[in-house]
Write a structure and sequence with these properties.
It contains 14 helices and 25 strands. It has helices spanning 77-83, 133-145, 179-182, 193-197, 251-260, 310-319, 322-330, 360-368, 384-398, 411-419, 438-442, 447-450, 461-472, 477-493, and strands at 9-10, 32-33, 41-43, 53-59, 91-93, 99-101, 104-111, 114-119, 157-164, 167-172, 213-219, 223-228, 240-247, 265-267, 283-290, 293-298, 373-380, 402-409, 427-432, 496-501, 504-509, 513-514, 517-518, 520-521, 534-535. The protein is α+β, with helices and mostly antiparallel strands and 536 residues long. The two termini are 25 Å apart. Helices cover 24% and strands 24% of the residues. The strands form 6 sheets. Strands 2, 4, 11, 12, 13, 14, 15, 21 and 24 form a 9-stranded mixed beta sheet that branches. The radius of gyration is 23 Å and the shape is globular. 53% of the residues are buried.
Length: 536
């Protein structure tokens, strides 16, 4: 057996947070913890726990991609996680956020632009056909030939070729240190190329992969069901018979499902969710650290005309109190970050950014110079914590003469206004997955590479050069210096403004489930090690 890594409504009145008193999100209940039970893990499945039962997981939202179920078009972390149950990638990420073997059992780098992958000899699609080098070559080439959001993350790929029955060589046109980490996410998964070319499968409508599970049914925004892929190396050792994933938008409802036993595990998002489970003997809540980060978009292209002025945008940026967001919204469970997620190697120090000085007098002078501002701030309802962050920002900006009205929208409406051609907003909140290499997320600050951000930000050639330099420089002091410059310039330009890291709060019923959960995650996949879960 192959060894796998352990693997729209305007709010006219809104309850304001009080910066010196009560808050909308209190400190976590003592039952919520980020303590590690083993190095790199907040939970480790008990090998002796009952197994073979039905596993029920509740999540906050479903996939919602224009490309259907095609993993290459997946652009949200929830899509990556759900589709990643069926598809596998050449590399994966371990509990330390280091690149580890996946469908590639090993690789060599004869030069800084050449990667030679040895492929697993026991990888089999759920239809029974063994994976071949042609599947790997075809999958990566398709991602290059049909550009989607993730294509830019692969970097400067010059050629992909099969150099043996179970060997694939990828050559880059220039060094790109994040290449292996970019291969670890679901959009870079290996697809059933032979069946696709023969017209036997439409992967926008059905999933056919080498992963541990097979999707047996899906009702959009309601439920997924999965069964084991009997051809997978881990099939005989799976600790559950079936997996049901319920889409439940309300957090209190997900917590109630843990209390009454109708769910075994649920994503809770809010750090005060432990209080919802207070007194439930069989419930445990833990906080998983993430490299994910919340950020504010300031629309310099289609928003209020004053936002085209960098001084005005920087004034907004520098007025935001990250410490208040951390304490009032996250109960002190997170920290401020720059463009490169704090904690990853070579990432910039957020306390050294120009905006960290919080010169409110200068910020107010910049806003007064344009006669004050009235701006809208868009959030989407799938993530209730965004409204809480918005309330802190609303109060912060009032201090410098900016009147903010918060609009809560369903995600489809939000997406249309933020990412649509008209880009109809002033300010908007969202979050990025932070990945495992700091160079990866910097890509989104280059509108030409990111695509989606081109409708509301212009970037700059200087910032683009720093992004490219950070991606091609080997880890170490030189790269750290480049990232420091990159973070500072992006901070000054203030078009996409990093705020704080985004932790995940996960709850499970200890009477029915013994899971394995890493302490850190970079791709929004809290089910990364689901093959180790044991459900009784």
């Amino acid at each position: 057996m192959r060894t796998r890594t352990r693997t729209g409504v305007v709010i006219s009145t809104i309850a304001l947070l009080t910066l010196t008193g009560c808050s909308a999100a209190s400190a976590p209940d003592p039952a919520a913890t980020s303590d590690e039970v083993a190095p790199g893990f907040i939970a480790v499945a008990d090998a002796d726990a009952p197994a073979g039962g039905e596993l029920v997981v509740q999540v906050d939202y479903d996939t919602a991609e224009a490309s259907g179920l095609d993993p290459q078009g997946a652009a949200t972390a929830r899509s990556w996680m759900l589709e990643g149950l069926v598809y596998e990638t050449l590399t994966t990420i371990d509990e330390d956020l280091a690149v580890a073997p996946g469908l590639a059992t090993s690789w060599e780098t004869p030069s800084d632009t050449e990667y030679v992958f040895t492929l697993a000899d026991d990888a089999v699609f759920s239809n029974g056909r063994p994976m071949t080098a042609a599947d790997v070559v075809g999958s990566l080439q398709r991602l290059i030939d049909n550009p989607v959001t993730w294509t830019g993350q692969l970097g400067p790929v010059a050629s992909i070729e099969a150099t043996g029955d179970l060997e694939v060589t990828v050559t880059l046109s220039e060094p790109y240190t994040a290449f292996l980490a970019a291969l670890a996410n679901t959009p870079a998964a290996v697809l059933p190329i032979a069946e696709m070319e023969a017209g036997e499968v439409d992967i926008t409508q059905e999933m056919l992969g080498t992963g541990p599970l097979v999707a047996t049914a899906h009702r959009q925004d309601e439920q997924w069901t999965f069964a084991p892929n009997e051809n997978h190396p881990d099939a005989a050792d799976l600790g559950f018979s079936t997996l049901t994933i319920d889409i439940v938008g309300d957090e209190a409802t997900r917590a109630a499902a843990l209390r009454d036993g109708s769910a075994d595990l649920a994503i809770l998002n809010s750090t005060d969710s432990a209080s919802l489970l207070s007194g439930t003997a069989d419930a445990r809540v833990a906080t998983q650290r993430n490299t994910d980060l919340h950020y504010l978009m300031i629309n310099s292209l289609g928003g209020d005309p004053a936002l085209a002025d960098e001084d005005v945008r920087f004034a907004i940026n520098s007025a935001i109190n990250r410490d208040a967001i951390n304490e009032l919204v996250f109960g002190g469970a997170t920290s401020a970050t720059g463009v490169t997620p704090v904690g990853l190697p070579d990432s910039c120090d957020p306390t050294s950014l120009p905006s960290a000085a919080r010169d409110l007098a200068a910020a107010k002078a910049a806003v007064d110079a344009v006669g004050g501002l009235e701006l809208n701030l868009l959030v989407y309802t799938d993530e209730p914590v965004l409204a809480q962050i918005a309330q802190v920002i609303q109060q912060n900006l009032a201090e410098i003469g900016v009147d903010v009205s918060i609009e809560q929208l369903d995600y489809a409406t939000y997406s249309g206004r933020v990412y649509g051609a008209s880009s109809d907003f002033d300010l908007a909140l969202s979050w990025f997955a932070g990945y495992a290499d700091p160079a990866m997320v910097t890509t989104w600050w280059n509108p030409q590479l990111a695509g989606f951000s081109a409708v509301f930000m212009s970037g700059s050639p200087e910032l683009g050069e720093l992004i490219a330099a950070g991606a091609s420089t080997e880890p170490g002091s030189d790269r750290a210096a480049t990232f420091a410059d990159l973070c500072s310039l992006a901070d000054e330009q203030s078009e996409m403004v990093p705020l704080v890291l985004r932790p995940s709060t996960i709850g499970w019923n200890t009477a029915s489930l013994s899971p394995t959960l890493s302490a850190d995650e970079g791709y929004g996949d809290f089910l990364r090690r689901i093959t180790e879960f044991r459900a009784g």
